[in-house]
Amino acid sequence: MKNFSEIIHIGELIAVSKVFQLNTYQMVTLLENGLMEVFETKEAFFEQYGKKETYGELDWCELNNGKVFTKPK
User: Fold this and answer.
1) What does 16-68 look like in DSSP terms, one character per residue?
2) pTM score, two decimals?
3) Among the four residues 8, 27, 42, 61, which has the most C-beta atoms within 10 Å?
4) How far apart are alpha carbons 16 and 62 in whole angstroms?
5) Which residues pair with 73 in a beta bridge?
6) What angle do CA 44, 63, 12 make, to 5 degrees?
7) Sign, CA torsion 21/30/4/62
8) What's the sign of the alpha-carbon dihedral 56, 41, 67, 48?
9) Cα–Cα–Cα angle for 17, 63, 28, rounded to 5 degrees
């Protein structure tokens, strides 16, 4: 299990959980199971997924600090 506390602040977790309509436990479970990803920058997200109009079966959320969270729909 990864130590997500080194890259994700609790405030970020709470904010993103509201966007994705999940509770914090569900968010942590998705992160632990590799179903949710965290990118330090939007550029890192684009590097993996490319710049597109839509991302099909992928929901994503960019925070004001540049971090991007992704999860399958």
Assistant:
1) HHHHTT--HHHHHHHHHTTSSEEESSHHHHHHHH-S-S--TTEEEEE-TTS-E
2) 0.85
3) 27
4) 9
5) none
6) 110
7) negative
8) positive
9) 30
Does an H or E element contain 3, and which? none
Tell me the pLDDT tens digit for each residue of 13-67: 999 999 999 998 999 899 989 899 999 999 999 999 999 888 888 999 999 999 9
For helices 10-19 and 24-32, what crossing angle results, to 10°?
100
Q: How far is 7 from 34, CA to CA, in rounded Å?
A: 15
CB 30 within 8 A of CB 71: yes
- Name the helix (H) or strand (E) containing 69: strand 68-72
- Whether the Cβ atoms of residue 28 and residue 16 lie closer than 8 Å to each other: no
